[in-house]
Task: structure prediction
Amino acid sequence: MGRAVTIATCALNQWALDFEGNLERIFRSIDIAKHRGARYRLGPELEICGYGCSDHYYESDTLLHSFQVLAKLLESPATQDIICDVGMPVLHRNVRYNCRVIFLNKKILLIRPKISLANAGNYRELRWFTPWNKARHVEEYFLPRIIQEVTGQETVPFGDAVLATKDTCLGAEICEELWAPNSPHIEMGLDGVEIFTNSSGSHHVLRKAHTRVDLVNSATAKNGGIYVLANQKGCDGDRLYYDGCAMISMNGETVAQGSQFSLDDVEVLVATLDLEDVRSYRAEISSRNLAASKVNPYPRVKVNFALSCFDDVAVPTCMPIQWRHHSPEEEISLGPACWLWDYLRRSKQAGFLLPLSGGIDSSATACIVYSMCHQVCLAVRNGNADVLADARRIVNEETYIPEEPREFCKRIFTTCYMASENSSQDTCNRAKLLAEQIGSYHINLNIDAAVKAIVGIFSMVTGRTPCFSVCGGSSRENLALQNVQARVRMVLAYLFAQLTLWTRGMPGGLLVLGSANVDESLRGYLTKYDCSSADINPIGGISKADLKNFIQYCIENFQLTALRSIMSAPPTAELEPLVDGQVAQTDEADMGMTYAELSIYGKLRKIAKAGPYSMFCKLISMWKEICTPREVASKVKHFFKMYSINRHKMTTLTPSYHAENYSPDDNRFDLRPFLYNTAWSWQFRCIDKQVNAL
Result:
């Protein structure tokens, strides 16, 4: 009869414009799917060219090379006897679409363009693509000659259609369409589509995975059916980490779960499912069946092929499983670590250098690198030949095997404590002890000579010598002297990143890591072009509160006891003179607000879309037990004043791992002016009027 269908989905670590590598990974996924008995293989969104091509989509080269890769796939024996569903850009009648190209045995069955484009947050698909607005409409697409020569077809169907095989019916969704309020799977399911596919380019955000899983499961809970989701994974060239989580769901329950964080470039999920379970599930939902009797039908592309075998009564089928979600601390440990590994191996550098201050932020960054080393050693133990080859190339040793995280860390990670006369012995000791426990190559140096030389040049030219506030200087002098120290550290970080391995007789250079958290960036509590200026920043999208929880996680899971004293110490920049040998400067006193308050301001400003007046109105309710309306007004005004004064710093913010939806990243996520009227006179007057009324 043919009831048990075997289908495959995958998570691929594709790289923008790496057509050769992308093709190799697609072939590997197809080979694995066929070897495990699958008759249908789904891949991630735009997998042929890589999702993150951005303005390269405008180039005819991107279209040309995508079709060249498609031709290789079509003519290969590896793609025979399995329906392959791949993603690429396609130009139809001079309009560029984000498409799925579905083919079988050297014949293209359907080109299905994306209907709902992602155009919020980090996504700008409407910049490069046009949505297909002709519901249930199919046109002829004239194939380029390079494809005609392989398939023998002159035209193929292009549009909003579904596939009808000998045993079932399949319909495609593309990423954002699952999140849309009018998702195509609703009408497709009513029209008898039993298998829904979704090719995604969905990135990691802390605490987001459950939303995606719930959407997939709910897609078939009301309407019945099988839902198959593929996703990109890894860093494909920018701030985002695509977090896999390929999955297969049936009738509202997960039956196969892929990993969220992994160093495997190719991960394939295969499930065998009984179509009769879908049909019997739908049979008793009378409201669904009444709606189905009135649905406007989809065009069907007939496919002379079955996803099941004729005699499959004894074929075992997959049972529902419970999805395991990572805790936020595990997500921080794994996501940025995988992103760092991709960046390191693809940039062809020899490791990282981190200015390690002995504070929470730089220590958390060091722990993420240590976690990366754990992941590398684990992957090699599990037989990952790609990771082993990359590790050998990075350390420049052909027979090297990374077996122990501390030993690997020593080879690829340099930490540097840059002391000044304002640094305490406590932070120096904390940095040294943490470096010993994670195994990094640690350098201690003093920046006083460089700072005095720079200030000396200023004094020689102007005849004036600036002083710290505690020595009678003005606030301008005090801030300038702090900034000189911070900027000297940035210059030295890059010098040591370029030449440290040279002094050790080793080839290559190091990537400089930044360690400013998302809250400090939002407030602008950093020196422009200081150690926050680096090549990449793995914690730039993570809040101080989450970093503290992550530090506690590392104490418990990595046995890094040095972190205990770091956790208990108040955050400080250590840029002002010590008082009786002790630190007198603290971050929260300098900022005029707590890190907890900053997180709230950030979420209200970005996620709740609140300006000064709306933020005040929300906070007088949220904080009614701890603040008077006048105190709330003062806090809100201070935040917006400092945010707007410092917004220009976001234009030079180091590329950071995107982990929070209230990130102030000016590059593409949080588009705002960087020259404000910092008086906010009209807005603040509205607040004052409301305070007086209250």
